[in-house]
């Protein structure tokens, strides 16, 4: 469990290398991954040397792989929070995570990260880099100029889920084995939450020199409102019976090409949503 | 027939827009299906409604004005439900509609959401009896003292009324989400497939079904593959195929054993090592499989391609067509925004010479198997005035850019065409673009093929 936590810490710290770098991260990820070649870290650096001066250095393969791993774990976490996850999607994401882990084990990077004493790393830094990471990812999506966003996957579920308790302590930290069992065992969601909580407890226990109380305080500083807003919106979307794309247009696209009547209904729905937000 | 004659190129590039219907924003179309004659077209939406369109008979006065599709009937097929045991809401979204072959004056179709399949009977009433002796016009009992003579009630014509009634409800057959239903050629049985299991039902029996495929592992932690689509062979009632999230197809023979976990044939293309990436498996996941009308071939859709498989060759597809290969360099972004998990459907034309599938930006693609030509068309209000001929579109990938080309970065990934259907015999296609339905017809007179 501690291995996974330190793995993510490593990733998050690397991701905080620069907001600007984060912006281009996804685009560079695309460039790197399209080659489909498995390279070690030094090859990535060769690429950096090969590029012309003035062009931004391409993040190393390891960094990108790490970023993909983080992204996948977050996706699976969101799966877990939603009531009835799409099983096919969950399986495919979990397989991706497994592939990355296997490769990292072969590379030896898995071990390398394990031996880094992340226990000493300041947990305050964990909080700040997490937020940076998230915002830079969101900004990257905005830069792509399309009308989708991270909201889109939340709209898969019609069920407003009271998952704030699990979300606030999750922060994409979980052991792979427990992860899978949590994802698949839809038949007993209550049991899931128990397992999930248990593995988190184990993680907390292995952190050195930190009392459980401190850790819990730490995670309480994480921006929960982000998740709560999403789950609230999800619940509202199902209540107002808005179409998938319409809701995206309302929230993420400033240039709405809908007709006047659509605009009016969108505005009404927007008022409705603002009402609910204000009430809560 | 489309694709075979000298006009095949004409067909591919000159579809005209005959009809489009705009539904209220709440109703995203989730499935489209022509019946066996093409006279009826059914659509299901996210709100659990089914809308059936009927083709008007062609007018003799205007032979070039082909029959248009108008709304025939609308009904609420499924309602949202709550599974109290698991504390889960069951969506009312219609995942699939399949028509039964018509056996009498009534039409029948199967519609399914994630859990429950329903059989609906659609009947017409255009006459009603009048002249009862004991009841008056409104149905109230007459005062017997006013009845002085007897009359025979007669059937008088009335305005056409379409009645839809649920005849069977096939419930509690699935733990996981139903992704496909397929009616057997024997017209007595049908199958329903969810992520891990396939059940065989008799159309007349609702309290029992046979499990014919079960890929659930003993330990759910070992789950790495799910069923994504399945279909019965159009002629051989013992054969069916199912596709998986790992990109394989399995042809099963129900005569071989009661439980068809062991396939008769496994169709799998070996991975191209030079193209390998972390997304290889995801993009190889088959989102739809369709037998050709002839029964000789299968058509599959994965994220970037459509493939034609010969039933006699298991090692690789006989044809592969690139739908939007320019997305290959964007897979990470598409993974991040979940677009990589979009499930596109595919369709054959009546003669199996042209195949069609949807893409992003409200584009859809057609591939002529004989000439190897392909075309990209757009389903949008702006570019589809009624009777106007559709203009082919092009996505440019850098390099030379022609006027009206769209660059990859300006594609709208929220506008995806997942559901398409082709008329069983004619050059008429139905395209579902979010909450809009487009019906396109060949500009060539329908009599000319």
Automatic annotation (TrEMBL), chain A:
Signal sequence, start to end: 1-18
One Pfam family here: SERTA
A single cellular component GO annotation: cytosol
Start and end residues of each SERTA domain: 61-108
Keywords attached to this entry: Signal
Source species, domain of life: Eukaryota
Full protein name: Cell division cycle associated 4
Organism: Serinus canaria (Island canary)
From TrEMBL, chain B:
Keyword Repeat: yes
InterPro entries: PP2A_PR55, PP2A_PR55_CS, WD40/YVTN_repeat-like_dom_sf, WD40_repeat_dom_sf, WD40_rpt
Gene3D superfamilies assigned to the protein according to its UniProt record, in alphabetical order: YVTN repeat-like/Quinoprotein amine dehydrogenase
GO molecular function per UniProt: protein phosphatase regulator activity
Domain of life, per lineage: Eukaryota
A GO CC term assigned to this protein in UniProt: protein phosphatase type 2A complex
Keywords, sorted A to Z: Repeat, WD repeat
Signal peptide annotation: none
Family: Belongs to the phosphatase 2A regulatory subunit B family.
Record-given protein name: Serine/threonine-protein phosphatase 2A 55 kDa regulatory subunit B
Gene it is expressed from: PPP2R2C
């Amino acid at each position: 469990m501690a291995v996974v936590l330190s793995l993510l810490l490593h990733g998050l710290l690397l991701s905080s290398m620069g907001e600007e770098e984060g912006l281009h991260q996804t685009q560079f990820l695309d460039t790197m991954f399209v080659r489909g070649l498995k390279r070690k870290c030094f090859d990535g650096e060769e690429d950096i040397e090969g590029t012309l001066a003035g062009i931004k250095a391409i993040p190393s393969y390891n960094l990108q792989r790490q970023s993909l791993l983080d992204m996948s774990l977050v996706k699976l976490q969101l799966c877990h929070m939603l009531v009835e996850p799409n099983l096919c999607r969950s399986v495919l994401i979990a397989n991706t995570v497994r592939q990355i882990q296997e490769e990292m084990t072969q590379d030896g990077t898995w071990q390398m990260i394990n031996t880094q004493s992340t226990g000493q790393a300041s947990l305050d830094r964990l909080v700040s880099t997490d937020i940076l990471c998230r915002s830079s990812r969101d900004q990257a999506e905005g830069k792509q100029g399309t009308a989708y966003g991270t909201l889109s996957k939340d709209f898969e579920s019609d069920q407003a889920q009271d998952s704030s308790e699990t979300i606030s302590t999750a922060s994409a930290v979980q052991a792979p084995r427990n992860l899978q069992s949590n994802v698949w065992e839809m038949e007993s969601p209550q049991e899931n939450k128990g397992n999930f909580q248990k593995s988190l407890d184990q993680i907390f226990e292995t952190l050195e020199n930190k009392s459980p109380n401190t850790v819990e305080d730490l995670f309480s500083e994480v921006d929960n409102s982000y998740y709560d807003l999403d789950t609230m919106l999800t619940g509202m979307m199902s209540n107002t019976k808005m179409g998938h794309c319409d809701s995206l247009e309302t929230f993420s696209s400033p240039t709405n090409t809908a007709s006047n009547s659509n605009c009016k209904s969108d505005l009404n729905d927007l008022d409705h949503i603002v009402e609910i937000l204000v009430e809560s | 027939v489309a694709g075979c004659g000298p006009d095949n190129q004409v067909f591919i590039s000159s579809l005209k827009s005959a009809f489009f219907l705009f539904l209220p924003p709440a109703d995203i179309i989730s499935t489209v299906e022509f019946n066996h004659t093409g006279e009826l077209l059914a659509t299901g939406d996210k709100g659990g409604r089914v809308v059936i369109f009927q083709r008007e008979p062609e007018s003799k006065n205007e032979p070039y004005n082909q029959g248009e599709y108008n709304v025939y009937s609308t009904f609420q097929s499924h309602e949202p439900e709550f599974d109290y045991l698991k504390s889960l809401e069951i969506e009312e979204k219609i995942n699939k509609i399949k028509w039964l072959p018509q056996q009498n004056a009534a039409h029948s179709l199967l519609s399914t959401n994630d859990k429950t399949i329903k059989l609906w009977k659609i009947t017409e009433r255009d006459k009603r009896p009048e002249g009862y002796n004991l009841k008056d016009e409104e149905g109230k009992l007459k005062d017997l003292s006013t009845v002085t003579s007897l009359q025979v009630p007669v059937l008088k014509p009335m305005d056409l009324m379409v009645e839809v009634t649920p005849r069977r409800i096939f419930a509690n057959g699935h733990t996981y989400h139903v992704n496909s239903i397929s009616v057997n050629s024997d017209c007595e049985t049908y199958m329903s497939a969810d992520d891990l299991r396939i059940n065989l039902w008799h159309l007349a029996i609702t309290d029992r079904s046979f499990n014919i495929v079960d890929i659930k592992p003993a330990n759910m932690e070992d789950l790495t593959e799910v069923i994504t689509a399945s279909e019965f062979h159009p002629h051989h009632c013992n054969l069916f195929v199912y596709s998986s999230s790992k990109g394989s197809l399995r042809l099963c023979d129900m005569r071989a054993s009661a439980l068809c976990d062991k396939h008769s044939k496994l169709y799998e293309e070996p991975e191209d090592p030079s193209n390998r990436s972390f997304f290889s498996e995801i993009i190889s996941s088959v989102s739809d499989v369709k037998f050709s009308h002839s029964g000789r071939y299968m058509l599959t859709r994965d994220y970037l391609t459509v493939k034609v498989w010969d039933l006699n060759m298991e090692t690789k597809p006989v044809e592969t067509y690139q739908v939007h290969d320019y997305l290959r360099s964007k897979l990470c972004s598409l993974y991040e925004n979940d677009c990589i998990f979009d499930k596109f459907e595919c369709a054959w034309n009546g003669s199996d010479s042209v195949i069609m599938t949807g893409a992003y930006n409200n584009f859809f693609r057609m591939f002529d198997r004989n000439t190897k030509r392909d075309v990209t068309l757009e389903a949008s209000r702006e570019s589809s005035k009624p009777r106007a001929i559709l203009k082919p579109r092009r996505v440019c990938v850098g390099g030379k850019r022609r006027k009206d080309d769209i660059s990859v970065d300006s594609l709208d990934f929220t506008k995806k065409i997942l559901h398409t259907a082709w008329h069983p015999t004619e050059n008429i296609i139905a395209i579902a673009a979010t909450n809009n339905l487009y019906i396109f017809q060949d500009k060539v007179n329908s009599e000319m093929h």
